[in-house]
Design a protein that fits this description.
The complex is a heterodimer. By secondary structure, chain A is an alpha/beta fold. Helices cover 37% and strands 12% of the residues of chain A. Chain B has a seven-stranded mixed sheet with strand order 1-7-6-5-4-2-3, sandwiched between helices.
């Protein structure tokens, strides 16, 4: 039975371009306090455009209504559980939004004098230190803009260190359970990728790793807990093995929400890692970004961190650009500062002990779901789960229902789907991460929905195969979208739609 | 819940971890704070930073007015707290706004396709370079020295280990790309020529003259912009093969350097080489128009090491800010806004000794005469004014010049004060 949602009126809405009519405007500028300038004489005749062709012309209220109506077509963590595995969709505290808009921080220009930027620089330093403590690392850069950007930074640092030792080496080892960003990143740093098998317990297979690692190995990229939500119990041995061959170990910190306050990567042998501040540290996902991909590293890699680095002289913060071994910049300025503010506010609200409690709550919620769904769905691995649990659709597939279908049916029950078909090593994966911020009531409603769907698969598989039934938009034809890509609106298309 | 799992205490959730990896002390982070204390803390930090002063800084980050509607809309939880729109049926809000964003970016830049956003302008430049390398199957990149210096540094970092040599092209006395130097460096090994317009000095580059030279050698032309407001008035680089840029000017506060939103736009024929996410139009099971993420086979989660880029998270919420901004201003507003910027900058420039004589939009370079730029900035700071960017840091040959910017936010009175500092020497 569907408990969480009921049907409700949803507004239809056309594209802005289709509402546009000449002369409408949603703005007013103050009168110009200097003489106007003729654009053609200032810029040159050929350098001035006649107009922005087909650009929208709508009123302020129409703009507000347009985006408000569109917003109601979205699911969001504010509406309910968002159990995407490895995505850590947790509550985004609104005080973080408020403090990120504090005028002195939000309006600071990156090139304003350092003497007039001390608050911003102090904030960066405080967050760097907190993240170094949480990860057990020696130094942190906040420059990378997202997780994959952090991976790129970390692997560049590994390459720079290997080159400083005389040989960049040739390959990066990546477990077959890794996120796709890992192999893509290694390629961007000029390394080849060698995949490492997982064993029957969902962990890196030590024997395969031993066979693969050699003097051509620049490093290993490992996710811990891995993408099946299992802690790599041999992590110490894995790191020691890589180190014994002169390699370095990069950790993808996408799953750090399972570890904060419980164990520290720097203590179990990791050389460099990234943190997704938009996952573990609750900065809003915003429909796909912005994020921030802080990178933490041990002493041996510190000289290679991106430029610039903060330094403090006589109580004054300054940017240090004199870093001869640095990999250089991975982006302009100092990082996604606005995201950093939110992450620091999150850390402050929890405090050291509170961060650990949050981790244990996240683990409890995931294990609770695992326990109650185990009778209905095939658990991919029997190993202990941390912050997420992974099932396969083996039982449902016998009725012709796959993980993607179950996911779509879950939408009818008022939930966002779990992560579908990832990790690739689990055939038909259902990867569920509830996070710590969900109540027992919300989780129980989700579990009821999953059990109800399991029963529907047995009794009426067509109901599941044709889902979702209750959304404004039923299943979307993604195949045609890719075969005949239409990625922008064009005026002649309106005419043909109107004729339909 | 623990009972259900079969545990007595929460600690048992982690007691199976190997003893030598467990962290047994408490994190050295102060105890949790109340909302009130947190707000106070950030206010205190902000008080150590100047932000309300009139400022003449631009150089890739611009002070423009942010209409109230922008925060009203992006603060809606349905936009703020949703994930990447992989589940199209319950993400039509975000997908529709991305489709509108892609369309407006095309209209603005004169290109045919644009993606859902990049991290920022600086990282979009090497992504365009890598794209050009894939398209042309050549490896060399030429970049004008008039491209933002930090963007060039990022390009150097990205290309270093990918076997992509980068050569820099000088500028003329007018402050524009030196076409003679372009001829010298351009050969059949060049994948792309990257220039910025308006360039780092605020000057328009001669895109129309340069494009055929680049095309004649089979290379692609990549045009960068950092000041999107210029495109309200300036002829877009229609001759370019790839346009990359930064939309920070569109309602994104300077925020000490980020987050911003980068764009990458190109010709339709290169759509499968574009990095990052794309929203596409299709139909739902009822035959109605709907949108979904498309051409995912370019991306890392499908293609892994063969992907066009490793980019995953992008800047969706900031792209939405820019989309709302473009809607609020619209066709006439963006032009009027650009005209105000042009007028303000030309008013200020008329009082100062310009270093270069090429046409400029809202930024320009001035000589500081017998005083150094640093001295002038220090004197202005005494008066509560943030001056321009001293250029010696990036261009040693311009150590007696500074880059000034005026926008619609700049007041005549402050411009007069600034000009007064130059006269005083």
């Amino acid at each position: 039975m569907i408990k969480k949602v009921s049907k409700h009126i949803v507004q239809n809405e056309s594209l802005l371009f289709e509402q546009s009519s000449p002369g409408k405007r949603g703005y007013q500028l103050p009168p110009l306090d200097v003489p106007p300038v003729d654009a053609e004489s200032a810029l040159g005749r050929g350098n001035v455009r006649s107009e922005i062709e087909d650009f929208p012309e709508v009123s302020e209220f129409e703009t507000l209504r347009h985006f408000t109506r569109l917003s109601t077509w979205n699911y969001a963590i504010d509406l309910g559980l968002y159990p995407l595995g490895s995505c850590t969709m947790k509550y985004n505290p609104r005080v973080n939004e408020l403090v990120a808009r504090t005028e002195g921080l939000a309006w600071a220009h990156p090139y304003q004098p350092e003497s007039a930027s001390q608050g911003c620089m102090e904030l960066i330093s405080v967050l760097e230190n907190a993240l170094a403590e949480i990860t057990g690392m020696d130094a942190v850069t906040l420059q990378p803009a997202a997780g994959a950007h952090g991976e790129f930074t970390g692997i560049l640092m590994i390459r720079a260190l290997q080159e400083s030792r005389g040989n960049p080496r040739k390959k990066i080892l990546v477990p077959d359970s890794a996120h796709g960003t890992n192999p893509a990143t290694a390629m961007m740093v000029g390394y080849s990728v060698e995949n490492i098998k997982s064993n029957e317990r969902g962990m890196v297979d030590l024997a395969s790793l031993e066979r693969a690692v050699d003097e051509n190995t620049a490093g290993l990229m490992i996710t811990n807990p891995n993408t099946v939500g299992v802690f790599e119990e041999n992590i110490n041995k894995i790191c020691a093995l890589i180190h014994s061959k002169g390699g370095l170990v990069y950790m993808d910190g996408a799953n750090m929400n399972a570890l904060v306050g419980v164990t520290r990567p720097g203590d179990f042998g990791i050389d460099v890692m990234h943190l997704n501040l938009h996952k573990t540290f609750s900065t809003p996902h915003g429909g796909g970004g912005p994020g921030a991909g802080a990178v933490a590293c041990g002493k041996v890699l510190t000289p290679f961190l991106p430029s610039p680095r903060l330094k403090n002289e006589n109580g004054q913060w300054a940017w240090n650009y004199d870093l001869p071994q640095s990999i250089g910049r991975v982006r302009a300025f100092y990082g996604n500062f606005g995201v950093l503010i939110r992450a620091l506010a999150y850390i402050m609200a929890h405090g050291g002990p509170g961060l650990r409690v949050a981790t244990l709550d996240a683990l409890m919620n995931a294990n609770y779901i695992r326990t109650l769904l185990d009778p209905y769905y095939e658990l991919a691995y029997k190993s202990n789960s941390m912050h997420e649990c992974v099932f396969s659709d083996d039982r449902q597939a016998k009725k012709g229902v796959r993980t993607g279908d179950i996911a779509k049916r879950l939408i009818d029950y008022g939930f966002h789907p779990y992560t579908v078909s990832f990790p690739l090593i689990v055939h038909g994966a259902l990867m569920i991460e509830p996070t710590e911020t969900e109540s027992k009531q919300e989780i129980d409603t989700f579990i009821d929905a999953m059990i109800s769907i399991a029963k529907e698969v047995e009794e009426d598989p067509q109901l599941v195969l044709k889902a979702p039934h209750n959304t404004r938009t039923p299943r979307v034809d993604e195949v045609t979208a890719a075969r005949r890509p239409v990625v922008r609106w064009k005026p002649q298309r309106t005419a043909s739609l109107a004729a339909d | 819940m623990l009972d259900t799992i079969g545990l007595r205490t929460a600690e048992e959730l982690v007691s199976y971890l190997p003893a030598d990896v467990r962290f047994d002390r408490r994190l050295n982070i102060p105890d949790g704070k109340s909302e009130f204390e947190i707000v106070d803390y950030f206010k205190a930090l902000a008080a150590k930073t100047e932000s309300n002063w009139p400022s003449f800084l631009g150089a890739g980050v611009y002070h423009h007015y942010r209409p109230v509607l922008v925060d009203t809309i992006v603060s809606r939880g349905e936009f703020l707290t949703s994930y990447t729109p992989y589940q199209a049926e319950i993400s039509q809000g975000t997908l529709t706004t991305i489709f509108e964003f892609q369309t407006m970016v095309c209209q603005l830049t004169g290109m045919e396709v644009a993606n859902a956003s990049m991290y920022d302008g600086s990282s979009a430049v090497p992504e365009a370079a890598m794209m050009a390398v894939r398209i042309t199957r050549r490896d060399k990149i030429l970049v004008a020295k008039t491209v933002h210096p930090e963007y060039r540094e990022v390009l150097a970092t990205y290309t270093k280990y990918q076997g992509i040599p980068v050569e820099e092209l000088g500028y003329t006395k007018s402050g524009q790309l030196d076409i003679e130097d372009l001829h010298k460096h351009l050969n059949s090994g060049v994948a792309a020529v990257i220039l910025q317009s308006p360039n780092f000095f605020g000057l328009l580059e001669q895109v129309k003259e340069i494009a055929p030279i680049v095309r004649a050698k089979g290379a692609l032309l990549v045009v960068v912009f950092t000041e999107a407001v210029a495109l309200g008035l300036m002829e877009p680089p229609r001759e370019a093969d790839i346009v990359v840029g930064e939309l920070q000017s569109f309602a994104i506060s300077p925020s000490y350097g980020g987050p911003y939103v980068g764009i990458i736009a190109t010709r339709e024929q290169y759509i499968r080489q574009i990095p990052g996410r794309l929203a596409g139009e299709t139909t739902d099971a009822n035959g109605h128009r709907a949108f979904c993420l498309t051409l995912a086979t370019r991306e890392q989660h499908i293609r892994r090491e063969k992907a066009t880029s490793n980019i995953c998270t992008n800047q969706a919420l900031l792209a939405l800010m820019a989309t709302v901004y473009m809607s609020v201003f619209g066709k006439e507003g963006l032009r009027e806004l650009a005209e105000q910027n042009l007028a303000k900058a030309h008013y200020l420039a008329s009082k100062l000794p310009l270093t270069f004589n090429a046409p400029f939009f809202n930024e320009f370079v001035v000589h500081t005469g017998s005083k150094s730029p640093e001295q002038i900035n220090a004197a202005l700071l005494e008066k509560g004014i943030v001056g321009g960017l001293a250029l010696g840091r990036f261009y040693p040959e311009l150590s007696n010049s500074m880059l000034l910017c005026a926008t619609e936010m700049t007041k005549r009175q402050d411009m007069d004060t600034l000009a007064g500092e130059f006269v005083k020497q």
